[in-house]
Write a structure and sequence with these properties.
Elements lengths: L10 H32 L3 E8 L3 E22 L4 E6 L6 E2 L4 E5 L2 H29 L6 H26 L2 E3 L4 E6 L6 E2 L4 E18 L11 E6 L5 E10 L9 E9 L10 E14 L1 E3 L4 E3 L2 E10 L2 E15 L2 E6 L6 E5 L9 E7 L3
Parallel strand pairs: 1-20
Antiparallel strand pairs: 1-19, 2-9, 2-13, 3-5, 3-8, 4-7, 5-6, 7-9, 9-12, 10-11, 10-13, 11-12, 14-18, 15-16, 16-17, 17-18
Helix pairs in contact: 2-3
Length: 365
């Protein structure tokens, strides 16, 4: 063991020891300063990203609804005359034209009555003509007899016309063009006047009925653009037009009714299907729209990272943004970025403000 004596050093020795200690401290200070500088340099990161240049574009804000597909016209056809069904002219599921015969009701009785009425009308007309000549040309008879003959002829002709119309109605015709969706009678069935015999559905165009929340009252206008999407068809979209906007709000659902007219020339839309609807509420010609994934949520709201040039390098700059409506993965941005800015769209989750950006894809500057 080494023992040190508590012995005073000469003044010269003290000076030498102090100098050596100071030199040791100075020697230790240089590496510390170098390490601090190195650490500051290492805090600047380089992150590989993809960017997109902001270009104003058209954007339409849609109100999202759920609706049900309805036939444009759905008509129940009724018999106008009673009788036994004698013949069927159209099968279920076939397309019929407006005015095309669907079925025939027995007309034997009406036809006999019409023959009788027409004979009576001819006799009444002949009687009137003779009475007219006697009265007007030969001044024979009375005016009353002449008038009675005239009115008898007109009445007989009207009766014959009535029976002819009834006879025509024994042939039931399609009131509209469409698909014969149902037929309620068969040959030999007895039907009464007014009894339903068939149903015709017109689906060349369809309506999609939905309810719009009352908070959008005044913003939804007839004639607005609309889009219908059906999940059962793999998300297929159909363009349409808002054809009807209700004026009264339902007290139970607090919605007002709307109808969208959609062309259905290929018959793909079937009544009863459920559709997701978008009704145009606001259309902008030059809007700032960004991909939804480019927007980063923070405690204070939303930001995007914009690539800006500083000292010959691309650096990340955080910009607070105000977002609006969204559609198909795109978000309307009200403020925070302007046309020409280059927004980070890939890699933004790894970026921090001030990072050096290595732009490797997207719209490289």
């Amino acid at each position: 063991m080494i023992r040190f004596r508590n012995q005073a050093l000469p003044a010269a020795g003290v000076a030498v020891l102090a100098s050596a200690f100071a030199a040791a401290l100075a020697g230790c200070g240089a590496p510390a300063e170098s390490a601090s500088t190195s650490a500051a340099t290492e805090t600047t990161r380089t992150v590989s990203v993809e960017v997109m240049e902001v270009v104003p574009e058209a954007f339409t804000d849609y109100v999202r609804l759920v609706g049900v597909v309805l036939a444009n016209r759905d008509v129940t056809v009724a018999a106008e005359e009673g009788g036994v069904v004698r013949e069927l002219y159209a099968e279920k599921g076939t397309r019929v034209a407006a005015g095309q015969p669907i079925l025939k009701i027995d007309d034997a009785l009406l036809r006999a009555q019409l023959d009788q009425a027409e004979a009576n009308a001819r006799l009444a007309r002949e009687t009137y003509e003779r009475q007219r000549r006697l009265w007007e040309e030969e001044e024979v008879g009375s005016e009353l007899t002449y008038l009675q003959a005239r009115y008898a002829a007109e009445s007989a002709e009207a009766q014959a016309a009535l029976l002819a119309t009834r006879l025509e109605r024994t042939t039931v015709r399609a009131p509209i063009a469409g698909i014969l969706d149902a037929r309620a009678v068969e040959v030999g069935a007895m039907v009464g006047a007014g009894a339903p015999v068939a149903r015709i559905v017109d689906v060349s165009t369809v309506k999609i009925a939905a309810g719009v929340p009352e908070r959008y009252a005044g913003e939804i206008q007839s004639g607005a653009e609309a889009i219908a999407q059906l999940d059962v068809m793999g998300g297929r979209e159909f363009a349409g037009t808002l054809s009807f906007v209700g004026t009264a709000v339902d007290e139970g659902s607090r919605t007002f009714p709307v109808e969208i007219e959609v062309d259905n020339a290929d018959g793909a839309l079937v009544p009863g299907l459920v559709a997701n609807i978008g009704v145009a509420r606001q259309a902008l010609d030059a809007a700032i729209v960004l991909p939804q994934e480019s927007i980063v949520r923070t405690e204070d709201g939303y930001i995007v990272y914009v690539a800006v040039q500083r000292d010959g390098e691309w650096r990340a700059e955080a910009r607070p943004v105000v977002t609006g409506a969204s559609r198909a993965g795109l978000v309307l941005v009200g403020s925070g970025v302007t046309a020409g800015d280059r927004v980070v769209v890939v890699g933004q989750q790894q970026v921090a403000a001030g990072d050096v950006l290595n732009i490797v894809g997207g719209e490289r500057p």
